[in-house]
Amino acid sequence: MKFSENWLRTFVNPSCSSNELAHILTMAGIEVENVESISVPFERVVVAEVLSVERHPDADRLSVCLVNAGELAENPLQIVCGAPNVQVGIKVPCALVGSQLSGIVIKKTKLRGIESFGMLCSARELGISEDAAGLLLLPETAPVGQDFRKYYALDDNVFTLSLTPNRADCLGVYGVAREISAVTNTKLTPLRIEPVQEEIEDRLDINIHASKACPLYCGRIIRGIKSNVETPLWMEQRLERSGLRSINAVVDITNYVLLETGQPMHAFDLAKLDGHIHVRYAKIDETIQLLNENRVELTSDMLLISDDRKPLALAGIMGGSSTGVAEGTVDIFLECAFFDPDVISGKSFLLGFSSDSAYRFERGVDFAATHSVLEHATALIKSICGGKAGPINEIRHQLPQRRSVSVRTSRVQRVLGITLDRDQISEYFTRQQFDYSETDGVFTVIPPSYRFDLAIEEDFIEELARIHGYDEIAAQLPSAGLTMLAAPESLRVPAQIKQMLVMRDYQEVVNYAFVDKVWETDLIQNKDPIALKNPIASNLNVMRSSLLGGLIANLQFNLNRKQDRVRLFEMGCCFERNSTGHCQQIERLAGLGYGDVHIEQWGEPSRTIDFYDVKSDIEVLYRSKEVEFQTISHPAFHPGKSAQVMMGAKPVGWLGELHPHWQKKYDIAKPVILFELILDSLVPMQLMQVKETAKFPPVRRDIAVVVDNQINVQSIISSLYEKKPAVVTEIALFDIYRGKSVGENKKSLAFRVILQDVGRTLTDEDADLIIANLLQVLATKFDAILRN
């Protein structure tokens, strides 16, 4: 945002220089990006009137002019001028002899034999703009002989602000002045707005069909204006120094009010309107040509201002070209409204252009000032263009609620680290024109209508810090006792889990959390992944619900670089929808094994990694926790080589060999073993229990039983552990046999059973009884037959 410093100082004029004022604003959170002087310094340039113009006798492109330069020149000056637009009666800036412009001293000189006593100036020669096509023409009312710097208000600077999105209240000069008044405790000259006298009764009916999108709309008819009058110089200068060019008087006034108050508004040519005003959403296939000459195809979520027959403007963004005020306009309909920021936000970006109105409406404008701003604009139009104003037709629905917020004095001191008593807090809130009350050190504050960024207690504490001054808050070194925090033995940090995998010969990778949608549909069969609205690349268009796809991509990367033995793991977030349709984030640990079990060597035969190698790695991760592996199908894994990792009745992960179909698709020569675990299941850790060391020798008994081939070995071991007495310290499978001797669809399982008592030596009778009980469990639950 750009504005004139002189304009700002008409509202608030603190006793500080321009650079000091820029520093004050920046330290208050309103960053001043640049302070630039309006023109280069010069003296002895005055307003002059051209009395006569004669052709130079020896030069076709030069004119000999007689110029009235006022009291500084005793007689009219003879000046030779080469500008094409010089003519009798115009008023222009004139540099007298002795003045210095752009490093050139103006002297008495001769041009083709004719004496010249000064120079008539263009805007470029005065450093005002780059326009060098001709002389800078001044209004007829310009006083001859007045110092041009004073007349043209050139002792001025342009401030350029870089505002954060939350400070929409400073998108008008008056809003910036209000901020400076609060920070510097300087008197603010209020923007005085008096109601305009209604001289006609004409009014236009307004129908709001989208009350949530437009809860407030004001409009009035003004008849009999003169749209071809010149915009006053003071207004034209303020617009130009804010980066806007003059168009016509009515449009200039609406732009001026926008820059002054931050409230966008628009004027329609009343003769071009058909029927009533409607505020509605666009219809399908509806189009409008805007003031920037763009023809826009509208969508159903775009808000329109229309009459009975056609769209008039894209609400909150830009007016239409067909109903704009132009030369010859006599009657206008002047509108001023409040639109819901959520309705306007992002629309100009989608349309490929920006506008000052959209920039303000999508951040929020002061809905409490809408009516008075319309009165202000009407008064300016009447004073400059004439005309007669009708009554304001105001349609009002439910406006945003400004809810009170409690601000505790104790909380202020705790957050800021300084002591602000109740009197200071009261003063700072008063300087910011907040409506508040105070009871027992608790302030109840109602945010003003122009501050949409104030909603919670911390917002108001930040306001107190800004007004007090960030540079007034002393820097203090933190004071704290340095003590070691207790590290609970029952919990592991992720770094410990990573270290365990590194020690198992794995290497860590870090991948993007957004992945190719193909990975989700192939490996997880996720038909509705969480899509990104603005992906950084076409192949990174959804959020991952599994880490497996990234690991396979890492494997391909390594294989393409001749790495034939790969061990990788990744710890990261996955994203999926819960039962209510909302997104949730889950931390997972995934790993991949490929190639030989060991690096090629002479002392051990080569063997490709298999399911059980990676299974042993998972068991090490869980340490003493009881986890089981249950056969289950998974779209990414081989049908006969996949398992679900269970902790009790809760599934905590997957393990399996990559499905041959995907192995072929991704051009991988050897089997790939993958696992993925929920990280939370790995963090808790069972503490080691102290037990008495047995002094008596253990007894080993082997059991070989025949069971159906479909029975899961893990279920047998779990059942035996469930029924075993305390003296049984270990039950483990050490042999599986299938063959004719055990029968078709049968298998022989051999278990090792270790028995040991800490109090005595077990006898054969003790061991036989325990083994008999275990065999009874096998026979009863699994129809197991003792193998001879």
From TrEMBL:
GO terms for biological process: phenylalanyl-tRNA aminoacylation. Binds 2 magnesium ions per tetramer. Residues 694-787 form the FDX-ACB domain. Its EC number is 6.1.1.20. Mg(2+) binds at D453, D459, E462, E463. Its cofactor is Mg(2+). GO terms for cellular component: phenylalanine-tRNA ligase complex. NCBIfam families: pheT_bact, YtpR. This is Phenylalanine--tRNA ligase beta subunit. The lineage of its organism: Bacteria, Pseudomonadati, Pseudomonadota, Betaproteobacteria, Nitrosomonadales.
